[in-house]
Amino acid sequence: MMHRSSFWLCLVAVCVLSACQKEVVDVPLNARLITARDKFYGVQALSPAKAVVVGYGGKILMTVDGGKTWHGKESGTDLALYDVEFVDEQYGWVCGQDGLILRTTDGGASWVKQESGTKGPIFALSFVDRNHGWGAADRATYLRTTNGGESWESGYLEPSLAGVREEATLAMVDPNFYDIHFLDAHRGWMVGDFGKIYHTVDGGVTWKEQQHSLLGQAGIDDALNLPTFFGVSFANAQEGVVVGLEGKISYTADGGEQWRFIAEEVSAFATDPLYTPLLRSNGTGWIVGAAGRVLQLQNGQWRPVSLGIPVVTWLRAIDFFDDQHGWIVGGYGTILRTTDGGQTWWPSVG
User: Fold this and answer.
1) Contact 278, 287 (CB under 8 A)
2) DSSP for 32-53, written as a single string
3) Predicted confidence (pLDDT) at residue 25 exceeds the cutoff of 70
4) Are 349 and 22 in contact (CB under 8 A)?
5) Which of 25, 30, 329, 342 is deepest in the core (most CB within 10 A)?
6) Helix (H, G, I), strand (E, B) or coil at 268
7) How far apart are CA 259 and CA 274, in angstroms?
8) What gap in Å lies between CA 334 and CA 143, rounded to an integer?
9) What is this structure's pTM?
10) CB atoms closer than 10 angstroms to residue 310
11) 8 Å CB contact between 45 and 60
């Protein structure tokens, strides 16, 4: 897989229709917290009007009025921040470059560094309560905590070479893990390079590879040719989706025992990478990716959708607070908001 740093550099302009400007406050250019230089990698909706966004240069932004105004929060770092994860309105965590993890206990007003025990990048976090959390990192490393991050335990997963041609085995070493999703303190999934899909039922103490059922599909007969997966999301213990390179989407209806690639006509629509899926327990679903690509789950099928405004930069993360209120963030300072379940989206200019 190409490293995240490379695809985050593949940026193009984002254009906003002037008709949308009535939805945002006109902020003088010299006072704006959000500029075209910003790259946003993570977002969490905490209420219909409150959201936290993180990104390049240690930037943490918060809004409490639906994006009309934004406030910068001191992160204490200029490292890139890749993900933000809250378990309630008060407790949240951020991860990023050089093993960085920050925690807040006051709703994002202040952030304190935690010692992760690793120096490599941590790409994603998943917490199920104030104590139990996990991280996906580089070089086949994952993290887990049972005390809210007061201490972190790191683990290494030796990748299986099953399904790999003998002459290619040396190429499959130390895959990066790019996303992780837990449903509760026991069940979770993690994805990364070489199409790796890992599943745990004991809180991350042990992991089992699940991607082998994809061999033989979409013309892939060697495990080394499986697409890197950047994102994973489960609606419940059975239904889940992973997305990645070449616009590939794979779905499971049995907790990952069997995975299948979504119909080729969906992937063939665009081969740009897909980065982040969001499956919700109410049956709704979204996927965002490169070149402004957005897909929505409609009547059980993934369909490309328009945001109603021209967006051609990469879109990195999506989150909904409820059925109506959601956010998308990405390159060139892109922050988009919906209040009608994704029928319409408005830009936030900060």
Assistant:
1) yes
2) -S--TT--EEEEEE-SSS-EEE
3) no
4) no
5) 329
6) helix
7) 17
8) 30
9) 0.88
10) 12
11) no
Domain ranges of the chain: 4-347
Whether residue 41 contacts residue 276, with contact meaning beta carbons closer than 8 Å, is answered with no
- Using pLDDT thresholds of 50, 70 and 90, give the confidence band for residue 80: very high
DSSP lists the bridge partners of residue 251 as 241, 260
175 in Cβ contact with 207 (< 8 Å): no
Query: What's the pLDDT score for residue 332?
Result: 96
Structure tokens at 166: 């003998």
The most distant pair of C-alpha atoms in the chain lies apart, rounded to whole Å, by 60
Location of structure tokens 């990023």: 96
Spatial distance between the Cα atoms of 137 and 120, rounded to a whole number of angstroms: 7
pLDDT in tens, 319-348: 999 999 999 999 999 999 999 999 999 998
The tokens for 91 are 């407790």
Q: For the beta carbon of residue 116, count every other beta carbon within 10 angstroms.
A: 22
Q: Which helix (H) or strand (E) holds 189?
A: strand 188-192
pLDDT (mean) for 50-78: 97
Cβ-Cβ contacts under 8 Å for 284 (sequence gap 6 or more) = 296, 297, 320, 323, 341
Non-local CB neighbours of 14 within 8 Å, separated by 6+ positions: 292, 310, 311, 312, 313, 330, 331, 332, 333, 334
CATH fold label, 4-347: Methylamine Dehydrogenase; Chain H (2.130.10)
Alpha-carbon gap, residue 271 to 265, rounded angstroms? 11
Q: How far is CA 284 from CA 83, 165, 277, 338, in A?
A: 22, 39, 11, 15
